[in-house]
Amino acid sequence: SSSSSGLGADAGLEIRTRSVEQTLVPLVSQITTLINHKDKPKRSDKTLQAIQRVGQAVNLAVGRFVTVGEAIANENHELKEEMSVACIEARRAGETIAQLTDVASLDHPESDSHITIFTDKTGVVKAARLLLSSVTKVLVLADRIVIKQIITSRNKVLATMEQLEKVSSFQEFVQIFSQFGNEMVEFAHLTGDRQNDLKDEKKKARMAASRAVLEKCTMMLLTASKTCLRHPDCESARINKDGVFHRMRLALEQVIEIVTDSRPNGENEMAPISIYSGIKEFKNKVEGLRENLYFLSKENLSTMLEVILEHTEDFTDSAYTSHEHREHILELSKQAKMELEQLVSVWMQAQNQKTKDLMEDLEVAILKTCQCMNELKREVHSAATSLAADLLKYHTDHMVLKALKITGVEGNLEAVAEYTCKLSEQKEQLVEMCRLLRHVSGTEPLEITCIHAEDTFQVTGPQIISAAETLALHPSSKIAKENLEVFCEAWESQLSDMSLLLREINDVFEGRRGEKRVYLSLPRPGKHNANLKALKPVKLDTEEQAKIAKLGLELHLLTSDVDSETEKWEDQENEIVQHGQGMSSMAYSMYLFTRGEGLLKTTQDLFHQAEIFATEGTKLASALHVLSDQVHDDDKPLLLLEAEKLISMCKQLQITAKASAQGKSATFTKVDACILKTRNVMTLLCQLLPLCCKLLRKNKAGNGCLKPAPPWKEDRIRTGTNARTPERRVDTFGIKSLENHVTNMTFLESK
Predict the structure, then answer these.
(1) Which GO terms are recorded in the biological process aspect for this UniProt protein (predicted)?
(2) Residue 198 forms beta bridges with which residues?
């Protein structure tokens, strides 16, 4: 019964964070090794010892793990009971596995009355299931404690914010803001760790957007509150301050929604589908007809197209879309309807009689429909990005903001009113630009970044206006002037973010990953590989893509891990970081190849990329040798050992990539081997990068090469990375400035 209760426990346990997942992975692989042993293996001493070693290792690991779990339980009374039960179950299962694998001392296990893995395989399976479910439960309970810490921290921040809103004297404000600053620093640290730990890229991007709002608003809250205290009877100053508090509350709420995975009003605030994702889904369904003529109805396809075409009205109805783009979009919409009609007609006939001619006609109809959708996608992409490029170019001089600052200081209310109208127009243009860009952003995290940008312009525009009006009414007020500066800076910073966002959207559209394009050295015809002529360049077909999907996904996750490791180095010019980023960039393009996307178009491109990747790895190994001369003697052997491992793995990859492969099956096997070996090198790289950082820190040899990332700065801009993690784009001034404010708050301008 204990095992059945264990099995039930994991049904509701969804693993949302990398740290929990990575703790479980090694345990799962050890247990899988035990369960998958052959029922009648050659029972050599070596086999028996190996089985016993794995069993004991599992038990020891569980013992250590449970000790930590019990310590957590003792500190958190409300979870103590649940945690203790899970710990007892895990310990018991670990001991059972150790007993069942206690086989090394048995000469003839089958004749012995002692029950072992050989006589009771179901016992091991039961114990393994119970162990995994109880360990997962311990991890998820520990995770709940982290969530609780974040909620408690948020509640502290909210309570102090309420006090701040009500203060009427500078002295009181200084005192409470100092406390508020410390609480915000704590909240920033907790949520920053959580953001990095989330597995879901979409949630990560939403979290980054909310944290960026909180960070910017902390500074705004300071100047807006000071302005209100300085000018207590000024209506525009009060409106300005209320806007900041309201936005902060919304952002705090969103962080908690993401952390607790709940929405108070259901899912209704989810963004509507974008044209880009609509077309992608529609094409998948259309191409699916090749394998199965009966898996969806014609009404289903027609509805999907209708939804896409409805969304194109955002472009055709927009005052900012050029006449030429509007005409092209309307033409392509009309053509898409005709192509679908033709496709449905042939498809219905093929359902009745599957003749060779009809299947050929169907293939032509599928290709023409997909081609038309690609053209439509290209047209809306061009319309959105050209509008964005024009607007960003036009508004980079910040003329309106400069004019507002000047006329505000002059106390010229009439001129301020005129320029606030211009700013409102500019805001409408930029909001429209964000809406259109969202349709073509290409990834969910980038979509979220577009929505965040739209909100920022929507909210910051009116806040600049109320700050400018306050200054115009009190032209000699230093604090009102400083307040307007803060809001104008937020606007300018969002505008400069838009240029980076636009670049990332274009990179995704063109299958590029980021700025550091130098690593992608594609083969030129006739220049590389002697056997190039003998090989017909091929892509992977759908079946092969499906087979290799899991491996590709693992490679994708590893590139994220390597990126976040390289991001921790302050010295981005360090040779180890440069090679690491290069390898990550290439591994990502190889992952895209497994999906039939990106710049590597044929298997030959992939093999050449694998060779370049291996060369880059060998260069990184040389950099490790250089580093080994700088570290203490105790650390040297470990570093050299890792460097040798890397050289050996890269050599193997080189050999595989250069090996000849004739025929479809052999080529796929070679692709599979290249991706697998690339994944292994990336796994090693994930261990190497933090090790090198640790050694450099220990030796202080890198002139402070490493610094702990400030809590708001996980989002800083990374050139040479890709659009998968747009949350890093958020422009930040780092929590340092906030910590400085807290220490400098002892004196506030009160005149």
Answers:
(1) cell adhesion; Rho protein signal transduction
(2) 17
Whole-number pLDDT of residue 121: 67
- C-alpha closest to that of 718 among 710, 729, 703: 729
Whether 376 maps to a domain, the answer reads: yes
Q: In this predicted model, what pLDDT tens digit does every residue of 506-530 receive, in sequence order?
A: 988 887 654 333 222 223 233 333 3
Per-residue DSSP letter, 708: P
Host H or E run for residue 438? helix 413-439
Residues 176 and 125 in one domain: no
CB contact at 8 A, 373 and 279: yes
- One domain, residues 128 and 210: no
pLDDT of res. 14: 64
> Higher pLDDT residue, 602 or 744?
602
pLDDT in tens, 696-716: 877 764 443 333 333 333 333
Instruction: Clarify whether residues 549 and 686 are in a common domain.
Output: yes
Residue 234: how many CB atoms within 10 A of its CB? 19
Q: Of 232, 260, 288, which one is at a domain's C-terminal end?
A: 260
Q: Say if 706 falls within a structural domain.
A: no
75-84, 165-174, 431-440, 727-736: least confident range: 727-736
Q: How far apart are CA 55 and CA 34, in angstroms?
A: 8
In three state form, how does the secondary structure of 729-747 look? HCCCCHHHHHHHHHHHCCC
Residue 504, both tokens: 């990332």
Domain assignment of residue 420, yes or no:
no
Candidates 146, 143, 226; CA nearest to 190 is 146
**Tokens in use for 518?**
């130098």
Alpha-carbon gap, residue 41 to 543, rounded angstroms: 34
677 is in which domain, residue-wise? 542-700
Query: 587, 724 in Cβ contact below 8 A?
Result: no
Helical H segments across 536-633, by residue range: 542-567, 575-594, 603-628
For the segment 242-281, what is each residue's pLDDT rounded down to a tens digit?
999 999 999 999 999 999 887 655 444 455 679 999 999 9
Q: Cα 177 to the chain's mean position, in Å?
A: 33
Whether residues 565 and 684 share a domain: the answer is yes
Judge whether 529 lies within some domain: no
Write the CATH number for 341: 1.20.120.330
Q: Would the pLDDT of 66 be above 70? A: yes
Per residue in 27-62, pLDDT tens? 777 777 666 655 555 556 777 777 788 788 888 878
Q: Look up residue 383 and give its two tokens.
A: 């319309």
Dihedral sign for Cα atoms in the order 676, 688, 53, 67: negative
pLDDT for the residue 42? 56
| Entry pTM | 0.63
Q: Which of 570, 580, 559 is nearest to 709 (CA)?
A: 570
For residue 557, what is the domain's CATH number? 1.20.120.230
